[in-house]
Amino acid sequence: MAEHQTVFEVQDGSVAFGGNQALSSVSFAMEKGQLVGLIGPNGSGKTTLLNATSGIYPLDAGSIRFEGRPIEKAPPHAIARAGIARTFQIARIFPRMTALENMLTPGFTTRDAGAEDRVTLIRRAKEYLDFVDIADFAHEQAADLSGGQRMLLQFARALMLKPRLMLLDEPFGGIHPLLVERILGRIRDLRDQGIDFIVVSHDLPAIMGLATRIVVLANGRLIADGTPEAVREDPGVIEAYLGG
Ligand SMILES: Nc1ncnc2c1ncn2[C@@H]1O[C@H](COP(=O)(O)OP(=O)(O)OP(=O)(O)O)[C@@H](O)[C@H]1O
Ligand SMILES: [Mg+2]
To answer: Can you give the CATH number for the domain in which 54 is found?
Structure first.
């Protein structure tokens, strides 16, 4: 019998900012090997769910489990070390550092856990820059990279943590179509190597083509969860997008 291993599970997750209920009792569980696309209109709570998962703005109520262990009260560095890495909607890189220096930033590498020496880290950093095809820019200031290249740098840096689950927030937003294709390709490569993904995107063609499962938020609530085909036809989803 095939074993269904739950990698990630949020149960009744809620987050409020003042009187604004950004996330309202959201629940879903994700099995190993699924590639989840998280979609929904602006302000629907997508980033809030990623922020809660990565410990930046913890849940007010509810629970989050990663590989069976509760993480909803853990701080960001502990969650990163546990195996969850993320990228941000607006690339959080250090513009005055080179691409390679960005890769080696404390807090983003396994060195913080005392796991690897600097020589090994530098070798891995170069491998990942090569993996996303920006090795030629290793010694360029990050400020000189295009928006798409910064997204690739963020993505490569997330790999320094050797994550088992990656949370990507709008990895295709406002970047050149060729780089969108490159990121899609790398996500598929990593998925084939056993890394699980939750990808937030407004690029519906890209995310529908990539994800095996689509979870839809609207006004902080989960309104649909299913295959890309099913979700595309869902009247509630169409209404949420068109109804503003
Ligand atoms: N740090 C914060 N402080 C106050 N309100 C916040 C904060 N983060 C999010 N919100 C509010 O929570 C709600 C959900 O926001 P969130 O950023 O999660 O939406 P989103 O689905 O990621 O939207 P977008 O597609 O525009 O990125 C919004 O009403 C937003 O204004
Ligand atoms: Mg967002």
So the answer is: 3.40.50.300
Residue 88 inside a domain? The answer is no
Token pair recorded at residue 143: 């400020």
Smallest Cα–Cα separation from 10: which of 24, 101, 94? 24
- C-alpha–C-alpha distance, residues 219 and 115, integer Å: 42
- Give the number of whichever ligand sits closest to the CA of residue 44: 1
b/e per residue 37-55 (b: at least 16 CB within 10 A): bbbbbeebbbbbbbbbbbb
Instruction: Write the residue with the smallest CA distance to atom 30 of ligand 1.
Output: 43
Are the C-beta atoms of 163 and 83 separated by less than 8 Å?
yes
Report pLDDT digits (tens) over 51-77.
999 999 999 999 999 999 999 999 999
- Same domain membership, residue 168 and residue 62: yes
- How high is the pLDDT of residue 175? 87
Same domain, 124 and 230: no
Per the structure, the complete domain to which residue 188 belongs is given by 1-83+164-244
Global model pTM greater than 0.90 = yes
Residue nearest to atom 3 of ligand 1 (CA): 17
- The answer to whether the CB of 42 is under 6 A from ligand 1 is yes
pLDDT per position as a tens digit, 156-176: 999 999 999 999 999 998 888
Each residue's pLDDT tens digit, 1-52: 456 799 999 999 999 999 999 999 999 999 999 999 999 999 999 999 999 9
